[in-house]
Amino acid sequence: VPFRGELKEREEQLLDTYEYVIVGGGSSGLAVANRLSENPKHTVLVIEAGLVDQHEDNVLLQRYLGGTMGSKYDWNVTTVPQTHLADRVQKLPIGKVFGGSSVLNGMMFDRGSPADYDLWEELGNKGWNFKELLPYFKKSENFTIPSTKQVEEFGITWDPSVHGFDGYINSGFPNFIYPQNKNFQTAMNNMGIPTSKDMGGNALNHYWSPNSIEPTTQTRSYARRYYDLIQPRPNLHAITSRQVTKLLTKETSTGIQVIGVEFAESKEASRKSVIANCEVILAAGAVHTPQILQLSGIGEKALLKRLGLPVLIDLPGVGQNYQDHPFASMKLNLANVEHSPIDLEKNATYDAEMKALFYSSREGPWTAGSPNAVAFLPFSTFSNRSAEFLAAYAAQSPDAYLRPGLDAKVIAGHNAQRKLLLAALSTPKVATMEFIFLSGASRFIQTPLSISLQHSFSRGYIEINSTDPFTAPIIDFRTGSNPVDLDIYVEALKFCRKIVATDAIQILQPTELAPGPLTQTDGDLRTFVENTVSTMFHPSGTASMMKREWGGVVDDRLKVYGTTNLRIVDASIQPLIPATHLQATIYAVAEKAADIIKADQS
Ligand SMILES: Cc1cc2nc3c(=O)[nH]c(=O)nc-3n(C[C@H](O)[C@H](O)[C@H](O)COP(=O)(O)OP(=O)(O)OC[C@H]3O[C@@H](n4cnc5c(N)ncnc54)[C@H](O)[C@@H]3O)c2cc1C
Fold first, then answer.
1. Atom of ligand 1 at shortest range from CA of 99
2. Which residues face 462 on adjacent strands?
3. What does each C-alpha distance from 132 to 34, 136, 290, 514 come to in angstroms?
4. CA of 285 to the centre of ligand 1 (A)
5. Angle formed at CA 252 by CA 246 and CA 256, multiple of 5 degrees
6. List of residues 6+ apart from 601 with CB closer than 8 A
7. Is the CB of 108 under 6 A from ligand 1?
């Protein structure tokens, strides 16, 4: 697909000034760039640090899902050793490529429950609730209804009123779904857990999760479509392989004005700059947006002073409130399944046959890879000790397990979050854990039944440790720093065993490989969790939309406090991570952000 905006190769081809300069051509950045450049009078520049993908198989095909992690399209960053996870260092794949993490992601395309987004409004952000986000979920989406065969075989249902049908990102089910996914649904239903008609308006209990997949080619549908599919727009420019190194600012009577950005091709290359007449928009993702702010003198005063940076705006919340969905797995061998994705790796003849099938008809296992069978369960659904665990959180003092030395404002914000979370998690309206049946997905390990805590009380951070923009910031998830978080995994693992014990799964002849039959006590299961939990790749929350006195970084117009014209539109702004995979929410937020920016301009 040819580029429809103008992709520039050299700085000399850029204009000196643009109306809008967007930092980061990732999932949110390309969506916002598209919408802002709809007005031909508005010149828009996207600056992206990474390369442009070449439609390689490991980018486009579900068969090779996960194959870009660790590649040249990944920032390849790691955390500091995680104290509460047996001191393990964690890899954090994030996209360094035009399209950002949407190029790398696992293609699950779902939403949180309405109550998840309503929490954002309850935190004081007017207009940020599910009802007001729904039109933007729809605007970003082009949903393909399931085939008659899938409806008949799997009983997939859907609600057209919650989907969009002409947005840029395709969503739908792959042409092939492994039959054993149905066993997971039956197991859930037999345990009294219903199947949601459609996760779009009710992402709770068991549901069939769509993928971000293009229906005709059965390939990845990703943020590049916001760029590739538009008619030529001479007012939309993009430059890649250029890293923004800092914001250029000036003080005005109404606050700090960001007049442009500085960028460079490499650490050694000379710094270039470009001017923004209207606004600079940060879309660099939850790791790099706080890094850019801190490098530019916007962040916690003590940090900036320690590094000898000017303190333009003392905003202690920058880089704090890091949230993710930590992830653990029970591994199973299923002796009685016809096929699982691991067979593609193990059996070259079978793989070749399935490849031929894919290229002749876009059918078969090469179209599958991303999970479709999931359950997002409220706490009391999977544990009869939910009240006890929530009481344990409630009994903690607000700062008990936060990072030592945190600013009082950030602690106050966390306290506000925990009060809302404690109320929400005691209802059936918000999920505490995701359970994913990966027999139809993972091609690397034997069928995992994965679990992921959706609303950790632990909080991590992103913090520069150098004034060199080419040095990665410190990434500390602080997973499990609140011990109750890890205790909940033990409950979830025990529930996994109940799922496995159902007739619907027993018929598949499962053998538990990990944690394994010898790991039975709560203490041993907890040790297993500490030794195996990793990230689900959902960094968020590090420049949160919250009140300034709560450590917020942006207001509900997504404007950075203390600035006149700096917005943030990426995963950093989510004050509380919703119980879902993040991409659909990222696109919806970006669509809404574009409308906010347009409205404030006129
Ligand atoms: C491996 C993986 C699997 C995932 N699986 C799923 C899934 O199955 N389903 C789902 O819903 N979500 C999934 N996610 C999460 C989802 O893809 C992300 O939450 C989302 O894409 C983040 O969007 P963003 O706009 O915040 O950041 P990104 O899309 O990461 O965009 C940020 C962009 O900014 C660029 N950038 C950063 N710093 C600079 C700088 N200084 N100068 C210029 N450019 C810069 C980056 O290179 C990048 O292109 C996954 C993510 C990963 C990494």
1. 49
2. 475
3. 21, 8, 27, 43
4. 6
5. 35
6. 278
7. yes
What are 287's two structure tokens?
């790791």
Tokens of 101: 């993490």
Does the annotation place 569 within a ligand binding site? no
Query: What are the sequence ranges of the domains in the chain?
Result: 57-229+322-601
Residue 583 CB–ligand 1 contact under 6 Å: yes
Is 70 exceeded by the pLDDT of residue 556? yes
Residue 586, ligand 1, Cβ within 6 A: yes
Is the CATH code 3.40.50.920 the one for domain 57-229+322-601? no
Give tens-digit pLDDT for 159-176: 999 999 999 999 999 999
- 515: preceding bond cis by omega (within 30 degrees): yes
Element housing 590 (H / E): helix 583-601
Instruction: Take atom 9 of ligand 1 and give the residue whose Cα is closest.
Output: 108
First to last CA, the chain: 34
Chain segment 444-493, per-residue pLDDT in tens: 667 789 999 999 999 999 999 999 999 999 999 999 999 999 999 999 99
Contact partners, residue 6, CB within 8 Å, separation at least 6: 233, 234, 236, 237, 238
Ligand 1 contact, 589 CB (< 6 A): no
Q: What 3 state SS string does 41-99 have?
A: CCCEEEECCCECCCCCHHHHEHHHCCCCCCCCCECCEECCCECCCCCECCEECCECECC
Smallest CA-to-CA distance from 244 within 297, 276, 286, 282 is with 282
Residue 136, CA distances (Å) to 162, 296, 579 in order: 11, 31, 18
Contact 38, 292 (CB under 8 A): no
Report pTM.
Answer: 0.98
**Residue 228 corresponds to which tokens in the numbers above?**
């590739």
